[in-house]
Amino acid sequence: MSDTETLKVYGDRAADYAALNQDYLSNDPRLLEFITACPSAGRVLDLGCGPGTSAAVMAKAGLRADATDASQEMVDLAQDLPGVTAWRATFEEIQGVALYDGIWANYSLLHAPRSAMPHHLAALKRALKSNGVFYIALKLGKGEARDALGRLYTYYEEDDLQDLLKTAGFTVLNCAFGESEGLDGTMARWISVACHG
Question: Can you give the pTM of this predicted structure?
């Protein structure tokens, strides 16, 4: 994700975003499901980690948590968390083969342009070990739009997302749906998909 306006919002509001996610993510049933699906002491990637809240929960559970984000301000927050190894990287910079037992892409790839999504998913599939765990969460809808804060979003319907995942070589295991309030104060519908690589 390299949209400068989106990155500026996250840089300026990094502390607010961290506060918003602190309590929720430590009790997120999807995150706990992801952790349970990964092997003990497995290496995992929190892609687009924000302030590193999810990665910290993973590390506390005994996983080796790597975390990347395109916002240096977010990476600075993530680096301060126990057990988290964080560095600045865009989606385009994710490389490697069979590195991770699990990849957690929680509301991060929704900032990537639709045209880039097949490339990003293919790179993540390569970085995932055979039968590794992949979770992705996005906002439901159609098209692309900026929110009230100026962040650029790409929206997906369930069928579109599942087709992209299957084309990239993932096996979809289950989906969860919900609605929650974001940093901009509005409610948004979302989908979270659990896959095997």
Answer: 0.95
